[in-house]
Please model this.
Amino acid sequence: MKEIRVGSRRSPLALTQTKGVLKTLQAAHPEITFTLKEIVTKGDRIQDVRLSQVGGKGLFVKEIEEALLSGEIHFAVHSMKDVPAELPEGLAILSIPKRVTANDVLISKDGKKLDELPFGAKVGTGSLRRQAQLLNYRPDLTVLPLRGNIDTRLRKLREEGLDAIILAAAGLERMGWTGEVTEILPTEIMLPAVGQGALGIEGRWEGEATSLLQSIHDPITAVTTAAERAFLYRLEGGCQVPIAAFARWEEGEIHLQGLVASPDGKEIFRGERWGKEAERVGKMLAEELLEKGAGEVLKRFGG
Model:
């Protein structure tokens, strides 16, 4: 194979992530030409409403997956949190590089941490998951919708009367903007999205690119994100219901934390589970939360 065509969303963060992967692959395979193809997804085109209002799964990957299935591109680099738990027939996650920081972070206008924000402070986020956990921890806060690229959100913090915004640490880390961070939010307060901080490289099982991608595969990240995705898959979660999960590899086992909440944060079902088999750990934790009452929240809010 002389040329490999690689798909990516057109956002600055997505392109930075993809170029980082390609730089590593190019160094290991100088004989191959890697060609980057930028693809605009539905989630990129619709920027003026919450993702939960757009509806459906795969808002940031569907058009890219269509390009994979047609053979237009050989593989694609995704933020793992954008990839639905169920993939189209014929496609698979072929490689998962080592995860960076999974936490969410607070960036405030005046350098105040979450506990220091004034009563009724305005906090921007486009995520129902973040909204629910914020309101559960600080019911007095006013959570306002916020969409756009990282630089757009930082500009809105300065210009639109917000006191703070919540972003993923991973995006800021990859863009070299960690200096903007006021506070890294602990998972006890803000459990991350499934797969947050990890990249997933998707392609066809029979594709020629499969073997070369193994050089950047991280088994620990793969097994922990697999547990999170199994949790999401059992819950059949989309964008309409706040769902969070984060797994760590500790002392030879997977430690998975999971959460299902109502968008207003008044109902939160949370649990944790240990085990060695990723799919079993994820499924069993989901079953536990469903038994506690999370199923009613999923039904009520259309998950």
Summary: The chain is about 35% helix and 25% strand. The first strand starts at residue 3 and ends at 9. The chain has three domains: 1-99+198-217, 104-184, 219-303. The chain has a mean pLDDT of 92.
